[in-house]
Amino acid sequence: MDNSKIRKIGVLTSGGDAPGMNAAIRSVVRSCIFNNIIPVGIYRGYKGLVRKNFVTMQSHSVSKIIQLGGTILKSSRLPEFATDKLLRKMAIDNLREDLIDALVVIGGDGSFRGANLLSEEFGYPIVGIPGTIDNDIYGTDYTIGFDTAINTAMEAIDKIRDTADSHNHLFFVEVMGRDAGFIATYTAIATGAEATVIPEVHTSIESICTYMQTERRKNKTSGIVIVSEGSELGSAVEIAAKVNEILPDYKTRVTTLGHIQRGGSPSTRDRVLASLLGNYAVNALRDGKSGVMVGIKGGQVSYTPFKEACSRHNPIDANMLEIAKILSI
Ligand code: F6P
After folding, report:
1. What angle do CA 39, 40, 41 make, to 5 degrees?
2. Which of 19, 22, 164, 210 is most buried when burial is the number of CB atoms within 10 A of its CB?
3. 259 alpha carbon to ligand 1 midpoint, in Å?
């Protein structure tokens, strides 16, 4: 599309919310206004697109939101959007009826799957911004929300360490990350956890038990095993129970950090990342780009086709896993 024809851009947040989404919305809205484009907020992700829950935004609509967690536009999960073409047709009709020329989708791989179909089937200009605490989107080094989430998890695990040490407890702490172990790996290094269980690496209950019984470990007064929720061994509760069957003398405890990892005021890194990506997304649409996610790779802006962004994950750096192991002996 000729960029001079873009008069209105819609923006929505979809899937699991992530701290920094508001900073991204603010950046999209203000970058639009800077370029004489009318920004339109779409509430509740794809649900709002189908139900035409639109509101024209002004510069003041996004005042004082950069420090807020969650998303002022609300979010939702609508897996049917990727399977039901009728929903996508309704969405496109709504966008066209309101003369919205292009769309910015802030979300994770599920959201980009829907965006990809919408853009391919109807030739509609869409650019994505990676927003998920999981950091599992291919095509960007970091996703919006990851930095805040790992800091939240780190603070919680530091507190758990205090009580674990006082009672010689072995804690199993479950962190989020359905398909990826980024949150687990980063927090394990940052908190000096004794072991990590992540979806990307095969681990057995026996190997966790063997490790717990090494001489060096036996001299420690507490233990923390960080479990990614997507681990092949099951939840932290299940893993703790299995370990306890083999090592009945260990006093095990379990904490599931859950959704506290998704909330809270975004970190500086997330605010800056979101602000840059929001601006890059508007510029990408003005430059005639579509069907891509904007990200940052090695300090440079990158454009990854939706198809690639939602079909694979960034691998966990093997070096990081190795270092986590070396430092936990
Ligand atoms: O947004 C990503 C994520 O937080 C995953 O880590 C987690 O598996 C999932 O969302 C939980 O989603 P919901 O809140 O919809 O249950």
Report:
1. 120
2. 19
3. 8
